[in-house]
Amino acid sequence: MQKPLAAIISAGLSKFGRLDGMSLREIFAVAAKEAFDSCPNLNYKEDIKAIFIGHMIESSEHQCHTGPLIGDWVGLPNTPSLRFESACASSGAALRSGVMAIMSGLFDIVMVGGVERLTHLKTSEATEYLSLSADYALEQWNGFTFPALFASMAKAHMHKYRTKEEHFAMVAVKNHSCGAKNPKAHLQKEITLDKVMSSKVIASPLKLYDCSLISDGASCLILTKPELARKFTDSPVYIIGTGQASDTIGIYERDDLTKLNASILAAKQAYKMADISPKEVNLAEVHDCFTVAEILAYEALGFCKPGEGGNMIENQETCLDGCIPVNMSGGLKSKGHPVGATGAAQAYEIFLQLTAQADKRQVSDARIGLSHNIGGTGSTAIVHIYKR
Predict the structure, then answer these.
(1) In the beta sheet, which residues pair with residue 64?
(2) In sequence order, which ranges of 38-107 are alpha helices (DSSP H)?
(3) 233 neighbors 9 (Cβ within 8 angstroms)
(4) Model confidence over 61-106: pLDDT tens digits?
(5) Cα(252)–Cα(255) distance, integer angstroms
(6) CATH architecture of the domain with residue range 6-121+215-237
(7) What CA–CA distance (Å, rounded) separates 226 from 113?
(8) pTM, whole model, 2 decimals?
(9) Is residue 162's pLDDT more than 80?
(10) What CATH class has 123-212+241-387?
């Protein structure tokens, strides 16, 4: 197994959901405070040397320059701070950049995170802003919102592999079951297969319960050099692989709508760097912005062969007691999807799992975890691999 690239020594997460009355900076401060309080050996004002923040939609806040804003609000006004925008993979990109900053030797300790506030908008406004991460001129302008784009991918998968609508619904049922055990999840309630199947059609075959939520929330991680980690905690989590790739921004240019090509490439990079195979992963947090996306992720990450994702969820292989538990946090589907915060929030869940802090959703004896974060319809894909 490869030498670690960086170590996570602490992590924090705000509640996800409708956080009325809280500003963007206040939401992030909640996540940062948890990370600081959980690591008493860290003198954050002296030790943290750089900040990397994911934030997608500046227009919704009428606020650019999120990096210095966040640095100022958490008590680090003179610390170099950068904002990353890569659609829903914004804090995944921030995390990868934080890892590279540590690997470069330029910084010993950095803070990585993400934040988004969207529930104050009308649904139509939020939908328009989110759709800007697809091809505005040739997709959004012609009526393709993200439910429609992922519905096209779902239809293609159903046609090519005989995947059923029930398979997508099973993903929702599983993730809501996990989200019900997560006190920070947006929707903490279980649902039935019948409830999903009978819910309102949003873009056939995707229904209401196949779609992730518009959420507010923030996530925060503290990274350091692997050799320094045990100065701060007895239970660090090491990042041992990272990969990133891109695909065409419009799905109309892709040869096969049943594949997340950028995810396949990013995963291969991360596995090679970590020197492991997909079979060695004990749990994963994947980007289930729509239920079909989770099934596509199973296949892209090598957990099963192409076309077998539906069978995987039907056989309960990705449930808590399955061979590869996926989205024990509840995923974007139940935990929530504050887009700028999602990538680092996935890493937060892996950190909890690998340090045995996940309570009722804890995966037994988890040693290696993976997070998979995409932007748009998979135009950006970022994969990280972790070990305890």
Answers:
(1) none
(2) 44-47, 66-73, 90-104
(3) yes
(4) 889 999 999 999 999 999 999 999 999 999 999 999 999 999 999 9
(5) 8
(6) 3-Layer(aba) Sandwich (3.40)
(7) 19
(8) 0.98
(9) yes
(10) alpha beta
Which CA distances in Å does 110 have to 10, 95, 102, 242? Answer: 11, 10, 8, 17
- The 10s digit of each residue's pLDDT in 327-384 is 999 999 999 999 999 999 999 999 999 999 999 999 999 999 999 999 999 999 999 9
Catalytic residue (one of 167, 287, 337, 384): 337
- Distance, in Å, from the CA atom of 303 to the CA atom of 291, rounded to the nearest integer, reads 16
Contact 39, 222 (CB under 8 A): yes
Residues 6 or more apart whose CB falls under 8 angstroms from that of 18 comprise: 119, 186, 215, 216
Which amino acid makes up residue 223? L
d(CA 247, CA 228): 37
Query: 39, 55, 88, 157: which one is catalytic?
Result: 88
Residue 304 annotated as catalytic: no
For this structure, is 337 an active site residue? Answer: yes
| Cα separations in angstroms, 79 against 28, 54, 75, 275 | 16, 16, 9, 35
Residue 198 makes CB contacts below 8 A (sequence gap 6+) with none
The token pair that represents 44 in the structure block: 């954050």
Domain residues of the chain, as ranges? 6-121+215-237, 123-212+241-387
For the stretch 103-118, pLDDT in tens is 999 999 999 999 999 9
